[in-house]
Amino acid sequence: MIPATFAYERASTVDEALSLLMEDGADAKLIAGGQSLLPLMKLRLARPDRLIDIGRIESLRGVRQTSDGRLAIGALTTYAQLLDEPTIMGLALMADALPRIADVQVRNRGTIGGAIAHADPAADMPAVLLALEAEVVARSAHHGERTIPIGEFFDGAFSTALAPDELLTEIRVPAPSGSYGSAYRMLEQPASGFAIAGVAAVIGQTGGSSRDAEIDDVRVAVTGVGEKPFRATSVEDALRGTKLGSAAIGAAVASICDGVSVQSDIHADRTYRSAMAVVMAKRALESARERLFE
Amino acid sequence: MTTEAIPEGFVGQPVKRTEDRRLITGKGRYLDDIQMPGLAYMAILRSPYAHANIKSIDIEVAKSMPGVLDVLVGADVPYNPLPMAWPAGGSAGIQNNVSTPRALATDAVKWNGEGVAAVIADSPEQAADAVEAILVDWEPLPAVVDAEKATQPGAPQLHSTAPNNVVFEWSVGDKGGTAAAIDAAEVVVKQRLVNQRLIPNPMETRGDIGMYNPGTDEYTIWMSSQTPHIQRLLLAAFVMGIPEHKIRCISPDIGGAFGSKIFTYADMPLALLASKRLNGRPVKWVEGRRENYQSTIHGRDHITYLEIAGKRDGTIDAVRVKTYANLGGRLSTIGPGIPTTLYARVLSGCYKIPNVYAEVVGVYTNTTFVDAYRGAGRPEATYVIERAMDLFAAEIGMDRAEIRRRNFIPPDAFPYENPSGLGTASGGAKIYIDSGNYEPALDKALATAGYANLAKSKEEARKRGKYLGMGLSTYIEVCGVAPSKWIGAVGEGWGAAMWESANIRVHLTGKVVATVGTQPQGQGHETTYAQVVADELGVPMEDVIVQHSDTQGTPFGYGSYGSRTSSVGMTAAIKAAGKIKDKARRYAAHMLEASVEDIEVNGADYFVKGSPEKKKTIQEIAFALDLAFDAPEGMEPYLDETAYHDTPNCTWPFGTHIAIVEIDEATGEVDLLRYIAVDDVGRKINPLIVDGQLHGGIAQGVGQALWEAAIYSDDGTLQSGSMLDYALPRAEWLPAFELDETVTPSPVNPLGVKGVGEAGAIASTAAVANAVNDALAPFGIRHLDMPLSAARIWAAMQAAGSGTSGSNGSNGSNGKEAQA
User: Fold this and answer.
1) How many other CB atoms are found less than 10 A from the CB of residue B306?
2) What contacts A253, CB < 8 A, 6 or more positions away?
3) Buried-exposed string A235-269: b where 16+ CB fall within 10 A, e elsewhere
């Protein structure tokens, strides 16, 4: 439980962090809250030569509303801060997911940017952000700022579209127009608290809420099941344009793992994990529907 | 004499724990808190393989690394293999094929985590780095991790001295009589039961600081141990071959143990040897959590073939088991004693079952060694018999409470000798179940749980997509181990006594120091001993300090485990207090110029019969006896008395626990809705501490039923190697426990206490497992093995079908059909 030797530098600005990242030679790793990276280092499963601590770059912390109405979440915003943020907690699926992430100590230190940059395939935030169709803002010293749609962000387990010289600065959540309901449901692996299967659902009626009208926006995102979090497009396609009746949901979610390489471990084999993805999808969609019509 | 109300004593009061201020404000002193000048740090290289030969070890690079002071391999350690102190059957003719660990493995390793080399360095970081630089040339060998498979032909062999990996084949009970009863029975129910392997998980992992004094040729070791006195004896006489008085063992604050810190571990002599090689620099070793999972003992791990036989009226005539007990790659200190004496001999529980026969095969596998974990044998026995009662009741269609009631040992049958012969030392010493009255606890628990409304609750749950189940566990356990004539006799015992000791001194100022041989590890002994001693001497509780844990300055004691401290240790303290009072009375007589016979004692007051104004207090007597200028001829100064207590019998707590669960039919998740526990632990010294022990024990037992499992891959890699994969119970998963009591004082000791350290863990596993299996009855599921994880339950429900198919499904290959 003792990490291998590493060098440590603290950046006080984004530019300083980016220039430290450019220094060549050493295998550098950014550290924010450290809630995923430090345990891996203590087990010597991660052995970076250099840690660049971005934890005190205040400009990366907090939630603001952009001029076009989007929520911009600073990469260093902790789960605890998000839990205190009415705009975030107003998103029902965030309110479902955030209180169940880890424990108080981890939520006080762990950051949303760190979580998605770490890209644990069973973490909650990736599914939530996929369903919200968020964007990830990244900066590098050479190439400046770019925006990555969240759907293109996760490459695989613990692997993202971020380049080695890039720093994730912000996550932007679009403001929906129309009426929306959302929910996040997950079955917890009892030891780790990570998802055996977690499903985030966002459904909307762009013309305004009506029980008699069809649902024209359906987004279903899944974590814990595949090699990386994913959008269940077959489920979305099957439900788009329906009134999201229980029978329709039941029929649609059956295909949620189609084409997915479902993971297996000592806690859940492929059969169980696939079945739980179906159950969680059903529960998330039904809850989202209830909330839409509330 | 005036008739003043006798002030209420401390015993029986829910006094807050005096040690808690220290422990919860970070002022405790655990092993890793200890710093000293020149401290060096040891790290141990552990085998990545479950089974391998060591062809060579290259330590040259490691030796040359920064800060490295020494590197040890097996050949450098001149000590004997670790002792094994409790062979199955003792020397009563049972062959035990013994292999115990060396301080470091020499030619082969037998489990993933066995120690191979040690680095001592100036800092823990340097030691950890150098361990990685040691190069071992391994020859991996095939491994086996399942005890039943290990005994089968063609299984990988661990030790040339143990054919078919068998440590021992031991049995107890009437084989012929039991067979005849089963053959003649109206109903026989069979079931294969797996009691899965667990990891004890104390909050504080283990550790040692070894220090050699080159000036005196003496050794001191600070150790996170439940048994400093036993460790001094074993390290001196059986491992290191040095005189016992040349070793001092000190246990600082212990952050939980649950049995795992009873034993002699390889790191202990290694830390001492390392210090000697460094000419006396102290050497600290502290286990990481992952290391704890791999190299401190595990618990349970039984595979049992059960047969229970009886009549359709619910009378149980016979129980027969064959149990494969997985003991790991080498034997831990008392490993073989757990599945034999502490399991099979209490298999019939609180029931009067005329025929019991148990066969136990102890087995080597390529896994971490297995030894006592909270309850040690008794939870395994309780699980078997309590599942058996439910299975039999289901087979004959009888109510589960009724079948228990019908087979309870009746209150007039005590003292009761059970048919698996509780103790048959070769000298003939036996122990008996001394007392009990089991129905009142059952009735109380049933009433609290609303047993009569069970069917209605089940229906109501079905409407919500849930399956509700209720489980009973009417347990007894054996505590307060143990009479020396039994445990120490050649034969069944472990060849050592198990008395306890206490010394009490009343100092000049009237302040009292009680020094005891038992060893707390979180139980609150500093509080409960003080309550007892304060009452005995009539002094305020805050005037009593309780000392323990250092072999220099405390009388020898066998330590704390087996729920023995209150029954055995505190009786020694009462005896010592009695000696103090006798002497004080004699001196009071001298001071008051009365005859000893005329001195009466009330609390702290010693007065002349009929003249209560003529009195001396214990404080005045202590003062005078310290100064001693006026002592009568022949009286020694000072109030300082030591007593030893050998218990005449063990104690027998009992009770009824009831769990109510709901299963989510879509996910298989179990929600523990209510937990009712009616326990009879005898008289309570401190009800607050009793409740705490029950809460923790129940939670641990629920953990086994629902979540915990140490899992090895077929090649012997520990897959549940950290808390990311080993699920400990969390407070939020548990309901508020509904505790109640009956109080039957134990006749064994003056306090009337029985012990409570293990009761919760012994009872709760079976209660929850029975509840889950009850909930699954509509699926025709008769038995599922633990842990009753959501995935396992869901798979069983899927296999069983709609929930009305009535299949006789057990889980997978484990099924053994009932036969009428």
Assistant:
1) 22
2) A232, A235, A278, A281, A282, A285
3) bbebbbebebeeebbeebbbbbbeebebbeebbbe
- Cα A233 vs. chain centroid, distance in angstroms? 17
In which residue ranges of chain B is pLDDT below 50?
Answer: 1-7, 803-820
User: Residue type for B204, please?
Assistant: E
Q: What is the length of chain A?
A: 294
- As a three-state string, the secondary structure of A66-116 is CCCCCEEEECCCEHHHHHCCHHHHCCHHHHHHHHHCCCHHHHHHCEHHHHH
CB contact under 8 A, A191 and B669: no
**Smallest Cα distance from A149 to chain B, Å:** 31
- The pLDDT value recorded for residue B816 is 34
Query: B582-641, pLDDT tens digit by residue?
Result: 999 999 999 999 999 999 999 999 999 999 999 999 999 999 999 999 888 899 999 999
Candidate from A43, A191, A279 with C-beta closest to B666: A279
The whole-number pLDDT of residue B423 equals: 57
Q: Which residues of B touch A266 (CB under 8 A)?
A: 711, 719-720, 725
Taking CA–CA distances from B722, the nearest residue in chain A reads A191
Written as six digits, the tokens of B692 are 């705490």
For residue B630, count CB atoms less than 10 angstroms from its CB and return exposed for 0-12, middle for 13-18, buried for 19 or more: exposed
Nearest to A279 among B290, B667, B798 (CB): B667
pTM of the model: 0.96
Check: CB of residue A140 under 8 Å from CB of residue A164.
no
Q: State how far the Cα of B781 lies from the Cα of B421, in Å rounded to an integer.
A: 35
Interface test with A, best of B42, B287, B794 (most A CBs within 10 A): B794
Q: How far is B654 from chain A (nearest CA, A)?
A: 31
Predicted local confidence at residue B91, as pLDDT:
58
Contacts of B719 in chain A (CB under 8 A): 266
Q: Hey, are the CB atoms on A266 and B720 less than 8 Å from each other?
A: yes
Taking CA–CA distances from B720, the nearest residue in chain A reads: A266
- What percent of chain A is predicted at pLDDT more than 70? 99
Question: Which pLDDT tens digit goes with each residue over B752-776?
Answer: 999 999 999 999 999 999 999 999 9
Task: Find all residues with CB under 8 Å of A23, minimum gap 6, and list them.
Answer: none
**β-strands B738-741, A63-65: how paired?**
unpaired
Concatenated DSSP letters for chain A? Answer: --PPP-EEEE-SSHHHHHHHHH--SS-EEEESS-TTHHHHHHTTS---SEEEE-TT-GGG-SEEE-TTS-EEEETT-BHHHHHT-HHHHTSHHHHHHGGGSS-HHHHHH-BHHHHHHHT-TT-HHHHHHHHTT-EEEEEETTTEEEEEEGGGTEEETTEES--TTEEEEEEEEPPP-SEEEEEEEEEEPTTT--EEEEEEEEEEETT---TTSPP-EEEEEEESSSSS-EE-HHHHHHHTTS---HHHHHHHHTTTTTT------SS--HHHHHHHHHHHHHHHHHHHHHHHT-
Nearest-Å Rg of the Cα atoms of chain B is 28
Of A43, A196, A266, the CB nearest to B725: A266
What sign does the dihedral A36-B204-B266-B286 (CA atoms) show?
A: positive
For chain B, say whether A44 makes contact (Cβ under 8 Å).
yes
Q: Which residues of chain A lie closer than 8 angstroms to B790, CB-CB?
A: 187
Phi, psi dihedral angles at A244 (to 5 degrees) = 60, 45
| ipTM (interface pTM) | 0.96
Q: How confident is the model at residue A25 (pLDDT cuts 50, 70, 90)?
A: low
**Joined tokens for residue A106:** 């981890």
Average pLDDT over residues A42-56: 94
Please check whether residue A217 is in contact with residue A206, taking contact to mean a CB–CB distance below 8 angstroms. Answer: yes
In B157-206, the DSSP E strands lie at 166-173, 187-198
* 3-class state of residue B11 by DSSP: coil
